[in-house]
Amino acid sequence: MAARTAKNLPFPSFPKRAKRMFGTLGREDAKESPAGGKAREAGGSGGLRAQRRVLGKHHPMKRVEEMGLWERLYFPEIIRGLFLTGYRFWRNLAIHTLHRFGLAKHLEAAITVQYPEERIPYPETFRGRHRLTLHEDGSVKCTACFLCATACPAECIYIEAAEYPDNPIEKYPSRYEIDTLRCIYCGFCVEACPCDAIRMDTGVHPGNLGSSRRDFVEDKETLMERSRRLEELGKEGLYEEYVRRYRHV
């Protein structure tokens, strides 16, 4: 069996495709606008040729193979690191002191958030812990189509499908599990779902769920209960309920 190398792949390499793409775009622009095409041929074609030259060449990343004499002495690098850390510390301290006196308001300094007593509000796009959305009658919206499990790059979603006894056309998940230790919280499952059955809008980030691997596997009932608690308490209430146990450690 031949190895899959750049020579025997069924598609052309990236530089060739990029050249072809930019060449096609340049010709199409010239056809759509004759005046604009002539102007690009006169003065703007150099930029297109430059793009082709850059995309046609490979630029390998440069790595430092050997340390220089200054780096091998070891102590100068430690002193440089301490200088950088000390500079940040004294700069932040000076700016915060000036802010106390109403000065240097245009300067910003780093702050330390005393989590979990304090926190910075999460944006609306924050991808938190999963939940399965529900119908008005409390049943799960998921139809066990397996699109979320298929789209998941970490393969952390496991589904077993079943049929409703009174509706053999539509399916539902008899088992739905998410391994939160494998999950990378990319949101692909949310994007892939055609019926809005899974969301990551809880505003709650992953935490320590136990001491064994099984404790970190969230089942169907856990994901459904999170939707009920979110509707009952709201996002802030759900967050407070989640971090309450961390505040007394």
Structural class, from helix and strand content?
alpha+beta
Kindly estimate the percentage of residues that lie in beta strands according to DSSP: 5-15%
Q: What low-confidence regions span 5 or more consecutive residues with pLDDT below 50?
A: 1-45
Query: What can be said about the biggest beta sheet?
Result: 3 strands, antiparallel
DSSP strand count: 5
Can you characterise this structure?
The chain is α+β, with helices and mostly antiparallel strands and 249 residues long. Helix content is 42%, strand content 11%. The strands form two sheets. Strands 2-3-5 form a three-stranded antiparallel β-sheet. A two-stranded antiparallel sheet has the order 1-4. A hairpin with a 2-residue loop joins strand 2 and strand 3. The longest helix is centred in the middle third of the chain and has 26 residues.
Topology:
Elements: H1 14-32, H2 34-55, H3 69-72, H4 75-100, E1 131-132, H5 147-151, E2 157-164, E3 167-179, H6 188-192, E4 198-199, E5 217-218, H7 220-243
Helix pairs in contact: 1-2
Key terms:
249 residues, alpha+beta, two-stranded antiparallel sheet, 11% strand, elongated
Brief sketch in words of this structure:
The protein is of the alpha+beta class and 249 residues long. The protein has 7 helices and 5 strands; from the N terminus they run H-H-H-H-E-H-E-E-H-E-E-H.
